[in-house]
Amino acid sequence: MRPTRTALTLVITAALAPALLLAGPALAAGSTPSSATTVATASDTAGPSVDDMSDDDVRVAIARIIADPTTGRAVYAAAQKAMDGTIEDQRYFLETGRWIAQAEDDRVAIARILASADPKTDKAVIREANEALDANTPAVLRAFLETGYRLARAEDDRVRVARILADPTISDALRAAAEDAIDGTPEELRYFIEVGQYEVDG
Question: Could you tell me if 174 and 164 are in contact, meaning their C-beta atoms sit under 8 angstroms apart?
């Protein structure tokens, strides 16, 4: 027997309860999420095929996307539109529309990275971001945000550390710290640039 609208509402509400609690009052009150973009990862896409999902499961999956406070604006809008449409619209969103919208959010995120980049010190980031935008495919855009940005920033940070080491006037303590950092992970390089170099005494 086809479920009633009330029964479906109860199913979605129960499924979303944890997400709404984590989302905070802004989302629970119905405000739209910020324009910050969430990058889909393998864990986001894992799960049953859309073809194998029941109509209720499809609606719950979309409702979870809407309730996620990190969902980007384009994905959020596409999800809302799908929920207002037919079940065919909703299945299309999960199979295809979501990823088209995600690419739009990814382009916005990369454009913001470029807008805040310093042409003098962020050359690798600018180069890789522009290459991703020029390629303009969902896979390349997402790859930049998932891994390319981190690696490009590490390349720029390594150049910054090398410039510190090239300064003959730095202290022995700062030189030792910079030598440790330059061969470190992207996160260790970033920490040294932002914090570590200023914590060195002498």
Answer: yes
20-29 pLDDT, tens per residue?
A: 333 333 333 3
Cβ burial of 23 (10 Å; 0-12, 13-18, 19+) is: middle
All residues at 6 or more sequence positions from 18 whose CB lies less than 8 Å from its CB, including other chains: none
Task: Return d(Cα 33, Cα 42) in angstroms, integer.
Answer: 23
pTM of the model: 0.69
Q: Indicate if 173 and 93 belong to the same structural domain.
A: no
Instruction: Please state, in angstroms and rounded to a whole number, the distance separating the CA atoms of residues 97 and 200.
Output: 51
- Residue 32, classed as helix, strand or coil, is coil
HSE value, Cβ hemisphere, 13 Å, CA-based, for 148 = 21
| Angle CA 187–190–141, to nearest 5 | 75
Distances from the Cα of 1 to the Cαs of 4, 67, 116, in angstroms? 9, 28, 55
> Is 131 found in the same domain as 56?
no
- Alpha helix stretches (DSSP H) within 29-170: 42-45, 55-67, 73-83, 87-92, 98-116, 123-135, 138-143, 149-165
Could you list the residue range(s) of the whole structural domain that residue 15 is in?
A: 1-116
